[in-house]
Amino acid sequence: MVRSGQLVVLTILLFSVLAFAQSSAPGTPTIPPAANHTGPAFDVSAAVDAYLAKMPPAQRARSDAYFEGGYWLILWDFLSTVLVMWLLLRFRWSARMRDLAERLTRFSPLQTALYWVQFIVVVSVLTFPLSVYEGYFREHTYGLLNQTFGPWMRDQLVGLGVGVVLGAILIVPLFGLVRRLGKNWWVWGATLMIAFAAFVSLIAPVYIAPLFNKYTTLTDAGIKDPILSMARANGIPANDVYEFDASRQSNRVSANVSGFAGTLRISLNDNLLKRCTLPEIETTMGHEMGHYVLNHAYKGLVMFGVVIVIGFAFVNWGINFGLARWGEQWGVRGITDVAVLPLAVIVFSVYIFLVTPVTNIITRNMEYEADLYGLNAAQQPDGEANVDMLLGEYRKLDPGPIEEFVFYDHPSGRTRITAAMRWKAEHPHSANEEEMARPLFEVK
Length: 444
Ligand SMILES: [Zn+2]
What we know:
Blueprint: H1 4-22, H2 44-52, H3 57-90, H4 93-104, H5 108-126, H6 128-141, H7 149-181, H8 185-208, E1 215-217, H9 221-233, E2 242-244, E3 255-258, E4 265-269, H10 270-275, H11 278-293, H12 296-330, H13 341-378, H14 381-391, H15 401-407, H16 413-426, H17 433-437
Parallel strand pairs: 2-4
Antiparallel strand pairs: 1-2, 3-4
The structure holds zinc ion (ZN).
Residues 287, 291, 367, 370 line the site of zinc ion.
């Protein structure tokens, strides 16, 4: 049971994270009055609208429909998870998987691992109809997937393999902790979870990402040199920029900073290289460098760490609540029994579903900080606005403020372009006519 003192501490923790995350809240960016530049005053709102108008209305409607459909998918994913977990408990499949694991070995860590393998395979099969709709058919409907079914399925199976291995690495010590600490497992469990997140982040660029895409070092000096120059100017000890073949999956432009400690690296995808101009690539890289310089990997770990600690306290409460009522009926012996996992997943899913706006605030504000950093580093506000428009192919460009607050894990196109144009208003010499005139979308 969580005592009231602990609850107070957890609440304070959650609010301090929110306060930190909101200290740079984008929300609706403020547009300052025109500054006293010589020449005609730069109209930020008009400049933003001109960029938004670059996307033809039909394409805009499609992108909006795609992204709004995603709001419902959050709900359907949640409900399907709860339904599948309930089936595992109600029909004692979970208890049977545990019994089988116990027949196969007497060594409890191995029992946990064997249960996990059965669990993840059964859950993947039961949720497959929704996964294939969501990840394959729906993406094709909106023209966002380049893969045929074979390669897509191959990626799913590789993902399942990664899930089997990584999940076992987490779940075996987690249940070891539960067995040792009983109902006090959750604080150390959350600590373990945070360490696990850091570990996955550390190995992902080297061992996981290459399972899905081919990573090569960028060789084109015309692009590599300006990027490395910007990296040096920003105190980033990088000798290489990585390129990966995201076009294998889709046409989405994207770049990322991945890794942790020794494996931290900046990668950009081939779509970005193919579809974007140098100013656009530079501003994107400036954004990614912002994540690096502002230590977003570490800050994210701390902020998500708080979310996890509170979540695990909630899971602990929920497990005790559920077991007291239905434990016997489900054949689950107690909190130390690995067959309790579906119940833990239900409770944690409820929590994650409810705190989605909180986790979105955390990521959205780091993204906004990186945008501002990228504007200062690359000094290409028009390039930035064009990239923001390209991202609008799969993210609704102009949502309402509440919609953006609740659902957006990145700032919306309007918010980002407004920040870019606000920056441009204060740096009139940065105006780039070619970028402004560049058509981004073919009229189909
Ligand atoms: Zn970012």
